[in-house]
Fold this protein.
Amino acid sequence: MSASQTSSSDIPADVPTLLVKIFGKDRPGITAGLFDTLAAYSVDVVDIEQVVTRGRMVLCALVTEPPPGLEGDLRATVHSWAESMKMQAEIISGLGDNRPRGLGRSLVTVLGHPLTAEATAAIAARITQTGGNIDRIFRLAKYPVTAVEFAVSGVETEPLRTALVTDAARLGIDVAVVAAGLYRRAQRLVVMDVDSTLIQDEVIELFAAHAGCEDKVAEVTAAAMRGELDFEQSLHARVALLEGLDASVVDKVRSEVRLTPGARTLIRTLKRLGYQVGVVSGGFTQVTDDLKERLGLDFAHANTLEIVDGRLTGRVTGEIVDRAGKARLLRRFAAEAGVPLSQTVAIGDGANDLDMLNAAGLGVAFNAKPVVREAAHAAVNFPFLDTVLYLLGITREEVEAADILDLG
């Protein structure tokens, strides 16, 4: 889709204009041909919209009225040209430019696998019920999920988000609502949780498997992530079970860590765009330092397992990275990167990520617990981490084009 427009202040509301609509099978030269035809009548271009879907084009041009006595000839010439191109034409008289958009601008990203007509209808109806108007719809991706973006005006972002997120779970889709404007394009720091976000595993459970206490640790971990236990107390209790493990287990655990599908694509794409990317974890530096090196991350911070005489002591050293600590680290990373908090993105899945998600300009709950989904700005419930790119307005085609250029 392309758009070009003259400021509406240059076109008074009572000035006659013509909306010229061309539609049919897309082929090279249609846009140039239409404007070559219109150029003979000394009209000015006020606005242009062009969309191509499965090889079918819709081209709309809003132009000023031609000099007196020439409108009939313009209409006949445009229809004749369109027929020669095996296209159809429609010309509608009116006054002035497009009507001003309502106050309150939001971008609604809808993810579905599949995205059904029923779900799309429900989302569109809910936007209307909140007082919003859909100004434009654009597809961001067709796989691994279908992602479309609605530009909405006339309703503030928060009430729109509340209304749509309530419907999303019932419809089996993900909906993210963010304020439109410069801040969305200016986000330059992304900070992620590690366990069950950047990676598919809970690192402490990988260590516990080697200590023969995986079930006990998993039970405590689940309760902590649901917010039922104090994180620091649960951390000490779980780490104590690892006492006596040989330090060689660190290399084994590193080799067992599985990245979440789409993690490399997300990080690679963000880095190409000039973002800084970091991780914060209630897990351990013995793993996050390795991830930082492997993935080219800018920041990484986690707890550290104490190792004495080649064995784990069952204790951690240094300041504990808990729920409040993750938010502090987000602020620290932002300060070091020179990025305002309003231009940061945080991604996480557990209750101990909530402070970080709320502190960021955009907090994304990724395959998260219910309490986290309800509190975050946006939620993604598909198992592909790179779907977060769509919430930033980055399309799958742009990602693939960049990959091809690098390969070249």
